[in-house]
Amino acid sequence: MANKIxxxxxxxxxxxxxxxxxxxxxxxxxxxxxxxxxxxxxxxxVHGMIDLGLASFVKRSVREAEEADAKAVILDIKTYGGRVDxxxxxxxxxxNLKMLTIAYVNPRAIxxxxxxxxxxxHIIVAPGSMIGAASPxxxxxxxxxxxKTGEKEIxxxxxxxxxxxxxxxxxxxxxxxxxxxxxxxxxxxxxxxxVTLTGSEAIKAGLAKAxxxxxxxxxxxxxxxxxxxxxxxxxxxxxxxxxxTHPIVSSLxxxxxxxxxxxxxxxxxFGLGGTISVVFLALFFWGHYIVGLANIMDIVLFIIGVxxxxxxxxxxxxxxxxxxxxxxxxxxxxxLALVKQPLPKFSWEFNLLNTALYTISGAILTSGxxxxxxxxxxxxxxxxxxxxxxxASEKQEEGFNASSAEMHTLAGKxxxxxxxxxPAGKAMIDDKLWxxxxxxxxxxxGANIVVEKVEGNRILVSPSLSREGARG
Length: 472
Known about the structure:
By secondary structure, the chain is α/β, with parallel strands linked by helices. It has helices at about 1-25, 50-65, 85-95, 110-120, 150-165, 170-175, 200-205, 215-220, 235-245, 245-265, 270-290, 295-315, 320-340, 345-375, 385-390, 405-410, and strands at about 40-45, 70-80, 100-110, 120-125, 130, 135-140, 145-150, 195-200, 210, 230, 415, 425-430, 430-440, 450-455, 460-465.
C-alpha cells in the first residue's frame, strides 16, 4: 500500500512538472490577441510608470506598425519616468524605424520619458507641457529612499540621451544637460541645475517643432490627417503582465508556490499541493519571461532544482548534496528571473537585486510561517488535512521505538523485511518491528536483511545473503 502511494506520488509529481512546462512555455501570440491590422499612422500611448511591461507593449506596437508598412508612429507621452532599462529598450525599438516618428509630449516627458521623446525624429508639445529632469536616482524597495547616483550611472544615462539626440538631429548638449547638472547652456540653464523645459521653452530652444492641443493637430502639422489612424491599446495579456511582475504580486505568487510545494512534499496522495505550486510558479515565470527578465535557462534551472529536491526526499535516503543542490537551483532560478543583470553594474541594477532578495526572502518566510500555523492550528482529523498533520501517536508494534540506546544495539543483526523497502519501510528484527531504510536498494517483502549501521534514529539495512532471518 505504501509503495502504491509513493508510486502515485511520483506520477503526480511528474504530471505536475509537465503541467509546469506547458504553462511557462512562452506564448507570445497571447500578446497579439488584439493585434492592430492596417493603418497608415499608429498612435501609441506611453502613459504612467515606464516599466518592462510598458516597454513590451511599445515594442509590440512598433513591430506591428513596421509589419503594416505604416507611414508614421506617434508616441503620446504622459509620464514622470521609470526604469532606465525599460526606456532604453523603447529607444532601441524606435532607433531602427525607417518611418516618421513623432513624440507628442502631452503634457509631460520627465526623466526616462524625456529619453523616449528624444528617440523620435520630431517632438511636439502640448500647452503647459514639460520635458527634462532626467538625472538617474537610486530607488529603494516599493519606491522609497530615493538618492542621487554616482558618475558611473550619470555617464551611462548621459550617453544614452546624447546618442538618441544625435540620431534624431536634436541638440546633444541640451539632451545631456537634462541628465547632468554640471553642464551649463547659455540662456537656458546654470551650472548645478538640471534642464527641465516648458513646452514654449522647448520650442524656443529648437528642441520641439511646434505646439499642438491634440493628436488631431499633430496629424495636421505633418499632413497626416487624411490617412487611416490606428490607436494602439494594451491587450489583456499586457495588463496581466504588468500586474504579475509587480514586486508585491511576484512575492505573493512565490509564497503560494512555495506553500503548494510544501504541501506536495508533505501529502502522500493526490498532488493537490503540487498542482497549486505549478499554477502560481508558472504565472511567476511566465510574466517575467515575457517582459524579458527571465529566460529559458532560468526556468530550466528551477525545474532541475525541483527534480533534485524530490529525488532527495522520495528516492535517496537522508538529506545531502542532492537536496542542497536542488534548493540552490530553485533559489538561483527564481533570483535570475527577477533581475535582468545577474551581476549588477549600475545602481538601478543593484536596486533590482535588493528587490529580488526582498521578494525571495519574504516569500520563503511567509510560506514557512503559514505552513507551520496550518500544521499547528487546523483540525487534523478531516479529509486532506489528515494527510498533512500527524493526528495519532505511533505505537511500538507499528514500528515506533523510543529508545535510541536499544536501536544502536541492532547494528550487525539480521532480520526480515516486513514490508517492501522502496527504500524505506518496516523490518522485523529481534522479534520487534522497526522503521528502516536502505541505501537506495529496493528489497521485497519477506527478504532477509542485515543492519549495516544505525545513525541517530535511522536504521540502515541491506539485503542479506544468508537465509537466516527473524520472521515475525
